[in-house]
Structure prediction request, 111 residues.
Amino acid sequence: MSVGDDKATLLMTILNEGAHGDALVAVQVQGGSATVRPRPSPIPAQGITVYGVNTSQTEDPDEVVLRGPVVDAGYIVQLTLTFRYAAPVEVGALVMPHRGPYRSVPTPVVA
Prediction:
């Protein structure tokens, strides 16, 4: 995650090894809130969806923006990813300052 002004852009890639497509429908953040765009965010069968930054895999990434006082550089934020079909997944995401290799990460624009 790259952070700025109590908001952070989540950087991740989700791989769907299944035979059927799925979708990320929500992200819960302990002590904060999250916005997924588009919602739901499609994840193709046998494919990937990239979030946050352009990569060699996509030039139009989907977006997850996290907000709240827990979004401070140096902390690990606990997230729950909720999918249309698959079981929820809990992950810890390290919050990085918006500098160095993360300087090019788009700053969240949601209010």
Q: What stands out?
A: The mean pLDDT is 87. The radius of gyration is 13 Å. DSSP finds no helices and eleven strands in the chain.
